[in-house]
Every structure is written in structure tokens, then in C-alpha cells.
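Why do we care about 3D structure at all? Because function follows from shape, and shape follows, mostly, from sequence. That is the central idea of this module. The next example makes it concrete: a single protein chain, its amino acid sequence, and then its structure expressed as C-alpha cells.
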Amino acid sequence: MKLTRLIVKGGVISPGELRNIVNLALNQNLKNLSFGSRQDIIFPEAFIENSDIKNSTYKFIFPDSSAANNIVSSYVSTDIFTSTSWLTGNKFLYVLEQFQGQPKLKVNITDPKQQLVPLFTGHINFIASEHDDYWFMYIRLPGWERMEVYPALIYSWDIATIYYYIEKLVANEAIGISKIFNIVSETLDTNNRTIEKSLQIPFHPFPYYEGMNRLGIDQYWLGLYWRNNLYDLEFLKEMCDLCFECKIGKISITPWKSFVIKGIPKDRKLDWEKFLGKKGINIRHSLLELNWHLPVAEQWALELKTLLVRTLDQFDISTYGLTFGISNYNRDGHYFTSIVVEKNSLPQDLQSIKIRDTYNVLYARNFDPNTREYQVHVQDVDKLELPTILIELSKKYFEELGSETPSRNIETSAQENEMQEVYQCQDCLTIYNAKYGDLTQNIAAGTLFQDLSESYCCSICEAPKEIFEVLLIEM
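And the structure:
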């Protein structure tokens, strides 16, 4: 299906920009829009390039346009999920602002401590280091069989300069990592830093990214998700108006076909809840619904997901920490879920014959998509066999959970860590760790969960203390 994409740099858009885009679509009598896996906006085939589109400042990529790629960033995760201390939302915006020309290669700019946005799905991946304003750069250009790490840390304000120079080199010739390093280091005057130790990627379960959740002391963040990835334009238009009233400056798109609004004032929380309720918006899907990645506008994939989710739910199968993807067969190594269901393509000479589809199921090493290593679990199975296979894999995941270190060196495994007891909210999966306490509720570090008052509630979703359960994690 030929779809039109709107580039949204870093997945960050203002309510004013989104409202203008919605009006452009409404003027073409469209009813909805979708979100893409690279944090862009997707329009249906009916979206046409008219004079309003040509005169706008927005970057639309029509089906027959020359290739262009969006920059993926984990700006959406800042302030609401685990993050690197120096990497603030403003820092992301400053780095993104450097990119003036539309990248031809896929670029990822991410925090390794969050799990919502994939780290390695770009051709060039900038991943924050422990040193303020310095980034690892992992490169896998088109045609490369493996990813390579650039042998120096990149300074924040050199990111765009280095990217555009590499893009220029790639356009002129096939090039390897050693040649890139030599040419860039000899040609550009950049503020690099020596890599003292390899990138560490800590283990964090897949986060719950939907609903109204606490943000600090006097604000909330809201995550919105539609099962069918078809977001009603009139709803979005009214939502942007409400953002204006609340002085909210940014809306963040996730790679999971959803979006997040941060900074809802505490005294306007009820207004938002009334707005969502009047619109009939469900904001408490189960994590089992949210942890799937599907291709845009592929009805077969949505129907397959619905079948699998209903079956897993019926049998009370836990998928906590797992993510799932559905795709057509391609095995390009750019998946970013724990488990992948691939639909096989029919041979050309059999396409006129009605034959039942078959599927392959793959899973990432240690069920961690950041390993970028997938192995085949089964091949050429019927759709009706898939629920049993996913149940089998989920059990395998929990059997192996804890046998691998949760924080690993990207090149070599870290040493085994000790187990620690924490308490987890069963509604939104937020963890209370006595080691850190809960600063949002003025609970000092070292306060045991048992010593919390009975009125204690979850700092994110405000669920009561009694629904927290003990969880052992590796530290």
C-alpha cells in the first residue's frame, strides 16, 4: 500500500504544528491519520499533494518522492522513564535543531537507559555515554553485514556535522568504518573523546506508556494508544486546543504507534479526564495490548495481533518484559522486539492459487532486542499454531530470566550481579526500591516498603499500596 509520510524530526511536534497538519488533512476530507515506527505521521492513499501542501513548510514524503528518513529520538522518554542524568529534554531539542537538511540515512539519537525507543534501528545510531554531552556512534550503513562502533565518543554539538559528512561520503562511494574514521578525524575539527569503556545497556522491562500518570509533584503525563492506529482528526484538533489552554509546548510520538503529552498541570487533570471520557477514549489497555509492533495499514497484521492477544489473555499468560512484532518476511536485522512473527511470501508461480499463509517465529538473544541477534524458533507453521508457540516462548523467557546479567556491555557480558527485593505496582509496573525511596512523595532513601504508611500510593498511577507485589531483580 502506498502511503504518504510526514517527517516529524525526533518524534517531537508542537500542538500548533499538529493542529495545522490536522487541518490540511481535514481539508482533503480525511477522517484519521496514523503513526509510523520511526515516529513519523502516516496518511492514507487518499492524501494528495495540492497547493496547500506545496505551500506549507512541512516535509511530506509522497509515494513517488525521493527517499528521505526521519530522525528517531528517545525525547519521548525523558522525565517519565529511567534516563541518563545529563540527557534532558532540552538537550535532545538542541541536538535535533542542528539537523537542518533532511537526512537520507536513518538516524537514531537515544538514551541507553530507556526501553521505549530502539537503540540500533538506524544506519547511524548516536547513544548517550556516561560523560556529559558525549555519545557513542554505532554505524551500519546500507549493504553492511554488521554494525560497527566509531572508535571515539562524539560531542553533542558535533553530531549533525559528523552525520552530514558521513552522508556525503556514503553518497560518493562504498566505505568501511576504518576509512570513515580516518577521513572524518583528518577533515573535521571536532571535539571527540576517547572511549574509556564500552557501552553499557542496563536491563529495564518494557514500560507501560499509556494513561494519565504522575510527573513530578504538580504535573502529569498522558499516553494515548489506538488499537487500529487510526487517530480521529477531530479528536486530535480538540486535543491540540486543550494543549494550548494548558500551555503544553510539545507532543511526542513513540515508535509503538502512540503518542505522549507531558506537563499537564495538576489543576487541569480533571479537564483532561472529562475530555477523554466525553470522547469515549479508553486509556487503560493492558500491557499485553501495548507491547506489539505492527506494520502500518496492514489489516492482516492487526487481525493476527487481535487473535494472538485474545488467546494469550484467555490463558492468563504473562508477557511482562516481552515485546512482540509482526512483519512480512524480510529478515533485514532491523527488528526491535523480543519476539517476531514473520509472514512468509508465496512463491511467484503460486500466487494465483489460494493457499493458507505460513509463518516463522524468531526471538532475540536473551529476549533482548538490543542484542540485534535473532534466532529462528519455528518455520512455516500455520496461523492456528502461533498462540501455542508464543505461550511456549513466554515460558522460556521466564525460565531464563535472571540467568543473564541485566546490565551488559555491548561488546562483552558484564559480571553476574546480586538479586534485590523491590515492590512493583501491578497496574502500571512502577517499582518502589527502598534504596532510593520516593522523592516525589518526600520518602527518604532507605525507607522500607513495610514502613510506608497505608495511605501510600503509586507515584505514577496513584494505585494503592496493597496492590504492590514483591519482585526480585538483579542489580
